[in-house]
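Protocol check, entry for the methods section draft. Step 1: assemble the input record (protein sequence plus ligand SMILES). Step 2: submit for complex structure prediction. Step 3: store the structure tokens unaltered in the notebook. Ligand used here: fe (ii) ion. Step 1 record:
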Amino acid sequence: MKKTILIVDDNSANLYLLKSLLESSGFDVLEAVNGRDALDMALVHPPPDLILSDILMPVMDGYALCRECKSDERLKYIPFVFYTATFTDAKDEEFALSLGADRFLIKPQEPEILLKVLDEILAAEYSAQRPHPRPLGEEMEFFRRHDEALFRKLEKKMSDLERANRQLAALEEQYRLSFENASDVIITLDAEYTITGVSPSIERMLGYKPQELMGRHYTDLKTIVTPESIKKIFADVNLIRNGDIIAASVYEYVARDGAVKIVEVSSSPVIRDGRFAGLIAIARDITERRQMDRERQENFDRLRKSLEATVRAMAVTVETRDPYTAGHQRRVAGLACAIAEEMRLPTEQVDGLRMAAVIHDIGKISIPAEILSMPRKLTATEFSLIKTHSEAGYDILKDIDFPWPIARIIREHHERIDGSGYPNGLTGENVLPESRVLAVADVVEAMASHRPYRPGLGLGPAMDEITKNKGILYDPEAVDACIRLFREKGYRLE
Ligand SMILES: [Fe+2]
Ligand SMILES: [Fe+2]
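Step 3, stored output:
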């Protein structure tokens, strides 16, 4: 027949584990959460075959339960086993056994050991031999020893709690130190958006003390935030309420002294038990960083303007010496940029190309003016002299620290992708993309316009030239883009 064990413990996890173990080992199990419940249960049901009880429990503890059982004629023969974690003293066990308990086991036990002990106690043989429950001492003696035993257990429990408390305090101290010393400002809000925490660094950032903000509703921030920013804060708070994390929002705060501070804030919701319980935000003053960024940008813009002015002055120098190509560089620059944009080259590259194109023939200042303006076709010697202009242009510009490869773009503007160009006979991708675009624009402009030795040929022959040599001399994408510009987009050389 199945034996029934009554287990008594105020901890539901303990009850659950014990119940699972015992049921899977073939016992029926009754459960009680304190001595009083256990007693009622033992009296109402058919009495259990064994009682397995914890000691410290509310309402009625294990000692009192054991004493009640052993004093009751109906229950006194039921084996009683203490199973307790808070064993502190041999006296506890002695007291338990003096009450008539069969065993005093300390948690946790290996399941096999616990089951073996229970089997032993339940064995018929054992029951036959079991001694008569010892008579209990005087009533007062019981209470004295009961109180002592409980007191020892409570003391142990208190010291455990104290140790846990000390650990908690150490953790709290660590948290407090980071909170107080962080240079960023940490702000916490509860679910109603009341400010519940502000780290002291707020005073360095805005000149307010944490106490001035604590306990206020976040809408009160509108007195210290610019109107634009408060709108953004309201919108962000709504997003956070819906579970979003805001990685870096930038707001403008107004410090106590009236200075506007640019503050970057990262915030996330605080979720407790699956519900929105508030939010935590970390704010960093980036006013100086912003200011530095702005100054850097201004410096860069200034530098760029002065570079552009220098380049324009250089272009004029070339063109005054060489009136026939006057305007050539400017028109080439316009067309080259249009082609590059049509090809969707990055803006940075287009900017560099423009600067290079405006002075791409600057090397011609090292060639005698008579040759440049010769009103006839050039001899081979004269032409080889002209060909030095791209390398000469490179030499003039190579030491200037442009943010773009201006000197190289110029050196390679007469290279051809089949390697037939000059000065280095570079092929394909070895020629800078800007130079490949510049080459197409240069050829088209040169053919279409008037030259010292011949009138302008017009656009038709220029288009024929680049179409015929597309992919041979000229970059195919640049050619396609150039043809689209003239044929479909109404581009004109001006
Ligand atoms: Fe050239
Ligand atoms: Fe040119």
